[in-house]
Amino acid sequence: MRVVESYTAGRWIGAADGRLVRDAVTGAVVASVSSDGVDLGAAHDHARTVAGVALRELTFHDRAAILRAVGKMLLADTDYLYVLSHSTGATRADSAIDIDGGAGALLAYSGIGRRELPNQRVWVDGDVEGLSRDGSFVGQHIVTPRHGVAVQINAFNFPTWGMLEKFAPAFLAGVPTIVKAATPTAYVTEAVVRRIIDSGLLPEGALQFVAGSVDGLLDVLDEQDTLSFTGSAATARILRGHGAVLDAGVRFSAEADSLNAAVLAPAAGPDTAEFGLFVDEVVNEMTTKAGQKCTAIRRVIVPAAHVTAVEEALVERMRGITVGDPSLADTDMGALVGISQRDDVLAAVGRVGGTTVIDTCDFVGVDPERGAFMAPTLLRATDAATTLAHVVEPFGPVATLMTYDTIDEAVDLVAKGGGSLVASVYGPDLSEAAVVTLGIAPYHGRVHTIDASSAAASTGHGSPLPQLVHGGPGRAGGGEELGGLRSVLHYMQRTAVQGSPDLLTAVTGSWVDGAARRDKGHPFTLYFDELEVGDCLDTEPRVITLEDIEHFAHFTGDLFYAHMDDDAAKASPIFEGRVAHGYLVLSMAAGLFVWPDPGPVLANYGVDNLRFATPTYPGTEIRVIFTCKEKSLRAGSGYGEVRWDTKVVDQDDNVLASYDVLTMVAERGAAGGVR
Ligand code: NAP
Predict the structure, then answer these.
(1) Rounded to whole angstroms, how far apart are CA atoms 565 and 31?
(2) What's the pLDDT at 634?
(3) Same domain for 250 and 266?
(4) Closest Cα to atom 40, ligand 1: which residue?
(5) Which amino acid residue places its CA nearest to atom 22 of ligand 1?
(6) In this predicted model, what pLDDT tens digit does every residue of 101-159 receive, in sequence order?
């Protein structure tokens, strides 16, 4: 028997007389789980005073690099986790979702951090808002890490992924985490946490772990802390009503149970590819993780005209499922997490009612009474509108088949789930599928709408993805996780800062229009480490002539009337006569600001936010005001990305075009040796 230990304030502590956990397959005792002796107040204090401070010293890219290292370290050796995971009833495929999927979430968030966040400690959200006529008073939203702790309370079903998919965005945000694992599978979570702590890759206290009760922890939380819960609606209700959430301002998010639906569209008759795909996905969702997935399909909603064919196809597929020892390669479905979980599921099946289509199978290589085995169970609702399948969640390999006559009726049935994490729609007629998708979207965090063209590449109904939101309204908890940067924001505070352009430049590290500029010579001759935001070039002028416009038009083939035909241009509601091509203005601007010789600027990789503000007529004298706006070092690459505020103006300083030029600029030390 393992004594599952908690890791708080830098030390491991456990108790052999805790709650006993049994192997889901054999029924043997495998672990004792208790948080007796763990000082949860000290853990909270440690997270805030040690880890939070250290994390906020790091940039987003520093944290992203650590996430990547942790993810790779975990993936390098997963065998021992698979062995532990089998004891929870999980097959190899189930374990891969949890273990490899969990490490994958770290890698995904590392990539999101490197690609979508600056190499800074502050994240700027949106544009500068002009708040005064003369531009001396402006506002901008900034996002900074909250000075608290990300407390996560997790369900038993994904002991690795459930922790890491929340840890990754919190860590990227710069906020330390305290994880409370669900007791039935805490030994798997402990093994992962131990690996991460032993690797020494994380700043001390960035991840703490509690096995057993967290009684008392919530009492010390305040408005800087977040509490993220995954589990049953009943526990979510208790936590949502806690004084920490109601009175102390703790940010609370819940992912609770969910009666997810799959809809077969009317056009998906038995002879269509979508019919077969639908049947496969329903069986897959019923049996993966023995149905103990918050996203599993519980309600199978099909046209009345096809119900007999669907029922027969489901039964045939379900008869081919091998249920038994999860460590065997041929096993499709393992055990539930424990006998009491199985009892709960069987009781829920009784409450859902209806008729039983199939609930028996042969169990291979196991004693189904000693382990928590049950057969995949398909029910059929006697009345689709009133069935308790819209209300009761059997958290196991169970689904209920029900019928509809019209698309509106199908949408209404889906909505009876009261808000779900995900629904699937299968059908070959895209206009029909689009109507169902739009009809059910307000009730879901994710809708997975499949036809034959996307099926092979589909990531599946039940798979939450780091880049897409996971959560749902109402019964599903009302929370939102993942979704790329959306979940990072959950751990941060958005603040509107008002002041002068110079103040905003000092706060954000990004040059703001109207802030001081300086001329240190041509900025393209400065290395990344020498450049400062506000370094500026005000170029020589150049006149754009009609000959330039003619030349550019014939050279590029862009003979649009506004450049070539004076009468037609005058007749338009926009122009007073022939105008220069916007791209000619841009090209000439580049000719004015680039430094021709090899130097620190390695390449231009694009422009952002391009606007042609005013038509440029022949005879206009243009020049460029080119200002270093943002710098972001690509750690270890020998270069950084530099964003330049670029304004093409006329002789009266009217802005003709504005945009950000994006370049890669070498560090001085790495000159000639950029990796
Ligand atoms: P649960 O009984 O609500 O337990 C979830 C977590 O809450 C466990 O860590 C549990 O700890 C803890 N907990 C229970 N009572 C608590 C309290 N008073 N104060 C603080 N923590 C408390 O749910 P479960 O049986 O583990 O999980 C199954 C349910 O989770 C299903 O309904 C399923 O739909 C839902 N689920 C939802 C999602 C989602 O993303 N929406 C994902 C997975 C599961 P102990 O284990 O130590 O009691």
Answers:
(1) 83
(2) 84
(3) no
(4) 255
(5) 235
(6) 999 999 999 999 999 998 899 999 999 999 999 999 999 999 999 999 999 999 999 99
Beta-carbon contacts of residue 41 (< 8 Å; ≥ 6 apart): 216, 217, 220
Q: How many CB atoms are located within 10 Å of the residue 641 CB?
A: 18
Whether residue 31 lies inside any domain: the answer is no
152 CB less than 6 Å from ligand 1? no
Q: Characterise 96 by phi-psi region: left (phi > 0), alpha (psi -120 to 50), beta (else).
A: alpha
Position in ligand 1 atom list of the atom nearest CA 231: 30
- 190 annotated active-site: no
Is the domain of 228 the same as that of 351? no
Instruction: Output the domain CATH number for residue 605.
Output: 3.10.129.10
Q: How far is CA 130 from CA 138, 218, 609, 612, in A?
A: 5, 42, 17, 20
Establish if 357 belongs to a structural domain: yes
List Cα–Cα distances, 649 to 583, 584, 655, in angstroms.
15, 14, 4
| Res. 670: pLDDT tops 70 | no
Cβ of 180 less than 6 Å from ligand 1: yes
Residue 337 Cβ contacting ligand 1 at under 6 Å: no
Ligand 1: residue whose CA is nearest its atom 42: 294
Q: Which of 255, 481, 630, 641 is catalytic?
A: 255
Q: Whose CA is nearest to atom 30 of ligand 1?
A: 231
Specify the number of domains making up the chain: 3
Per-residue pLDDT reduced to its tens digit, 447-463: 999 999 999 999 999 99
pLDDT, tens only, 12-44: 999 889 999 999 999 999 999 999 999 999 999
The pLDDT mean for the chain works out to: 95
Report whether residue 235 contacts ligand 1, using a CB cutoff of 6 Å.
yes
Co-location of 229 and 313 in the same domain: no
Both 118 and 173 in one domain: the answer is yes
Amino acid 674: pLDDT: 47
The residue range of the domain holding 402 is 260-464
Domain co-membership, 536 together with 433: no
For residue 81, what is the domain's CATH number?
A: 3.40.605.10
642 near 663, Cβ under 8 Å? Answer: yes
Which of 281, 294, 628, 641 is catalytic? The answer is 294
Same domain, 296 and 239: no
Q: How far apart are CA 609 and CA 87, in angstroms?
A: 54
C-beta of 414 in contact with ligand 1 (< 6 A): no
Which whole number is the average pLDDT over 96-100? Answer: 96
**pTM score of the predicted model:** 0.91
Instruction: Provide the sign of the torsion angle of the four alpha carbons 213, 145, 162, 196, taken in this order.
Output: negative
- Find the CATH number of the domain harbouring 402: 3.40.309.10
Average pLDDT over residues 267-293: 97
Quick check: is 255 catalytic? yes
How far is the C-alpha of 256 from the C-alpha of 84, rounded, in Å?
26
Best residue for ligand 1 mutational test, from 232, 285, 420 (most atoms within 8 Å of Cβ): 232
